[in-house]
Amino acid sequence: MLTRLGPSVVNAGDVSSLAPFPSTLEFNPPVHGVWNIVHMGMLIPEAHQIYVCAVNCMRGVVLTAAEMGMRERFSYVVLKEEDITRGTVEQITLEGIADTLRKLPKLPPCVIVFPVCTHHFLGVSMARVYRELERQFPNVDFIRAFMDPIMRKHLSPDVRLRMAMHDPLRPCDPDERLVAVLGSDFSLDEGSDLRRVLDAGGYCLTDIQHCSTYDEYLALARASTFVAVYPNANWGAERTARRLDRRYLYLPSCFDYVEIAAQYACLAEALGLPALDIAAEIATCDKALLAAHNEVGDAPIAIDASAHPRPLGLARLLIEHGFNVTEIYLDAVSPEETTAAEWLHDNAPQVQLSSIVMPDLRVAPRTRDREVLAIGQKAAWFTGTSHFVNIVEGAGLWGFAGIRTMADLMRDAWAHEKDARDLVPRKGLGCPSCF
Amino acid sequence: MNRSNRILPVYTGDVSGACSALFELGGMVVIHDPSGCNSTYNTHDETRWYDHDSLIFITGLTERDAILGNDDKLIRDVVDTARELRPHFIALCNSPIPWINGTDFAAISHLIERQTDIPCFHVKTNGMHDYVVGAGNALAEIARRFVVNKPQVKDTVNILGVTPLDYHQTEASGELKRFCDEQGLTVTSCWAMGSTLDDLARAAEASVNLVVSAAGLAAAKVLRERFGTPYVVGTPYAGGADLSAFRSTLAQALRNASSSGQCAYPCRDARPQDVTGTCFIVCDPVVGGSLAAAQSLSGMAATRVVCPTEAAPELLAPCDIAADGEEEAEAALASATSVTADRFYEAVLPEGATLTPLPHLAFSGRNAL
Q1: Does a structural domain hold residue B44?
Q2: Which residues of chain B does A30 touch, with a Cβ-Cβ cutoff of 8 Å?
Q3: Are B297 and B249 in contact (CB under 8 A)?
Q4: What is the per-residue pLDDT across A390-405, written as a single tens digit (0 to 9) for each?
Q5: Is residue A1's pLDDT more than 60?
Q6: Alpha carbon A410 to chain centroid distance?
Q7: Is residue B5 in some structural domain?
Q8: I need a surface site. Which of A137, A235, A279, A401 has the fewest CB within 10 A?
Q9: Would you give the DSSP letter of residue A209?
């Protein structure tokens, strides 16, 4: 149990807004399993990424590609002081990208371009840059991305990239029996409920992870129904569906039986699927959770938001099944979690919500009186435990099967220690890695 | 054009260089940046981040605060955090957008220092230079602000320019100190690994400074200007290579400088100046020059240094080449038959050239480990 209480730690019973922590200086834990925009861009087969920025901003992305063993799919253009003082950023951006493409041994079918904050602040016309690039390279699809973390009034680079990545998908005749999941970093589990019920209904489920060529990626446009299961994918997937005149369903991964049942009902109605035996599904979930609880007992459990976008919902599910959830690490409460936050406020007010980035956490003790079961890499690091569920971003868990898988992962984590020092500094869990 | 880079990574940036140089000194480094600088630094450029707590933060700058000039928030956040964590000093680093906006870091530092009674200074960075500039400026600021005037003590030395970026091997700083001990020189301070801020504050006692990377030169010049301390540029350590002959040369240069007060650049001068061969070393010019000198003194083929960073030109011999970016590096190595460099350079070597790996954290990051 955490004992610190102050701006960086609050009790669930005291949380009254979606932003429980003040804005101040931030630190960065040495935990790097979550994906960044480089990892995401690499999902498009044969695509090449080009970044245009200053060296200090470049360093992280270029070495992300290098650590993935994918340097040949990544290039960049360096911006220098004189480009800014002389007003030549737009020219350097255009000429640099064009020069980079001419240097490649083979012209890629798709190039993802990442200008940065500087381009916004200097009023660079990226529309002109793309117009000219498309004139010079008519056979290349240029994806308009951004790496502009300063633009916090708008959507994050992550959310916008998940939208932009779908821009090459072109209007075509739909395949009524094809359903595509858009915008997820992880493919849904092979045994996931969504695959199971769609298979049973005669549908084929596909996603970007199943594409090995750029043409296969473009063929995602043939799906008659687009589905998003990851919150950051919702905005872009919904707009892509509207642009291509497709059916769209937002079915976010969650841990709430009622919400999951509603998602099945929505899916069944949209696609004409047979009804699922919800009571039987819930019973198997309860059984899996009971089995996990029999092994974990009252061990303190810490959850972090990098493991799954619904940390509060997961906490509620576990508490309702007798687990001893003590700590939840997050930056803010997701609007999708207001119900879970209210439930914790009323039913588990002692659970402590901790910031992930506030400065005092850099020097806060990272040991606990008892061995902790952590769900997520950051929770593992903050609590100093070697018993942790090593997942990020939901890991493709979905529906009732997702709950059962989570219960199994918890049992396994409690039974088997992991080397956090070795595992959590690695970038992009689940991506190719040199380490 | 030399701005476009097809496959080689970029070297560590100036902000990360400043953080690396100040990491062990008990200060608080604040990067005025929206996001990313801290993550980049601690993921790729800082081998100590997991095991050692160092107070390095970003401000989380937003477009609204940048456009409206909300420096009050920056000052308030730094002051509040410093009052809680009580660092020995506060160092402020810049990034591209506040640099474009002309944020007045000198004034902000002054205000923070007045409100906290903690020394606060600006390290000149803007994210557009490499680590040599950032680390160099950071160590120079330490030399300006914290080193106090004391009588020199005979046969003592400061080692300047030691960070994991150029010396990532865990035994490196110990090896450097051992070399000095063997020469009868007591190490007053090592800038900046394995020494405290108090150790560095005593640097004026040293009779000579040993500059072991380009990042240490700016501090050496400040100490020279303030206290007259001579410096010698060269390293006895380069990843285990046989440098015995050069070690003797370097030791003699230290003794000479200590007695004469004259500075020396054996990494540049203790090797042939008119080399036109096809053997190259690509790395920091002090490390590379020392290795080239050692090879030359050992009777091996004469080697030229390709310097890929913003190191001071005075560190290069006439035969050496400064290469800015991938295109210039590729051109410099076009005739190479033998290259000693980080293994990532393999991608731009001409056909038939052999590569002897010289891992460099400031280039290939964790891939070098």
Answers
A1: yes
A2: 42-43, 49-50
A3: yes
A4: 999 999 999 999 999 9
A5: no
A6: 21
A7: no
A8: A279
A9: G
Of B202, B232, B266, which residue is a domain's last? B266
* B51 and B117 co-located in one domain: yes
Question: Best interface-test mutation with B: which of A25, A79, A80, A113 has the largest number of B CBs within 10 A?
Answer: A25
Residues 6+ apart with CB under 8 A from A106: none
Say yes or no: B260 and B141 in one domain: no
**Chain A residues within an 8 Å CB radius of B7:** 71-72, 74-75
Whole-number average pLDDT of chain B: 94
Contact yes or no for B36 and A100 at CB 8 A: no
CB contact under 8 A, A25 and B126: no
B100 and A96 within 8 Å at the Cβ level: the answer is no
Q: Based on the fold, state whether residues B122 and B60 are members of the same structural domain.
A: yes
pLDDT at A221 over 50: yes
- Closest by Cβ to A363, choosing from B34, B44, B53: B53
Buried b (16+ CB within 10 A) or exposed e, B130-143: bbbbbbbbbbbbbb
Chain segment A139-176, per-residue pLDDT in tens: 999 999 999 988 888 888 899 999 999 999 999 999 99
Chain B residues closer than 8 Å to A120 by CB: 63
pLDDT tens-digit profile of B32-80?
Answer: 999 888 889 999 999 999 999 999 999 999 999 999 999 999 999 999 9
Q: Which residue of chain A comes nearest to B33, CA vs CA? A: A150
Beta carbons of A71 and B347 less than 8 Å apart: yes
In Å, how far are B21, B119, B310 from B18, measured between CA atoms?
5, 17, 14
Chain A residues with CB inside 8 Å of B331's CB?
Answer: none
Nearest-Cα distance to chain A for B175, in Å, is 26
Is B63 in Cβ contact with A62 (below 8 Å)? no
Q: What is the pLDDT of residues A272-292, one digit of tens each?
A: 998 889 999 999 999 999 999
pLDDT > 50? residue A42: yes
Smallest CA–CA distance, residue B101 to chain A, in Å, is: 9
CATH architecture of structural domain A175-271: 3-Layer(aba) Sandwich (3.40)
Nearest by Cα to B228 from B286, B151, B145: B151
Q: From chain A, pick out residues whose CB is under 8 angstroms from the CB of B16.
A: 56, 59
Contact B172, B162 (CB under 8 A): yes
Phi, psi of A169 (to 5 degrees): -65, 125
pLDDT tens, B287-346? 999 999 998 888 888 899 999 999 999 999 999 999 999 999 999 999 999 999 999 999
B131 lies in the same domain as B69: yes
Residue B9 lies in a domain: no
C-beta atoms of A25 and B78 within 8 A:
yes
Minimum Cα–Cα distance from A382: chain B residue: B50
In a domain, B134, yes or no: yes
In angstroms, the separation between the Cα of residue B165 and the nearest Cα of chain A is 13
Q: What is the pTM of this model?
A: 0.94
Q: Averaged over A260-269, what is the pLDDT? A: 95
Listing from the earlier edge strand, what are the strands of the sheet with A223-228?
A204-207, A175-181, A223-228, A247-250
**Domain membership of residue B228 as a residue range:** 156-266
Closest chain A residue to the Cα of B46, Cα to Cα: A30
**Final residue in a domain of this structure, among B97, B126, B145:** B145
Given a contact cutoff of 8 angstroms between Cβ atoms, the answer to whether A299 and A414 are in contact is yes
Q: What is the pLDDT of residues B173-186, one digit of tens each?
A: 899 999 999 999 99
Q: Which CATH class is domain A45-164?
A: alpha beta
> Which ipTM score applies to this complex?
0.94
With bands split at pLDDT 50, 70 and 90, how would you rate the model's confidence at B277? confident
Domain boundary assignment for chain A: 9-30+278-423, 45-164, 175-271
Going across the sheet that includes B304-307, the strands are B321-322, B304-307, B279-282, B338-341, B354-357
User: What's the number of domains chain B is made of?
Assistant: 3
Q: Which two tokens stand for residue A156?
A: 């994050």
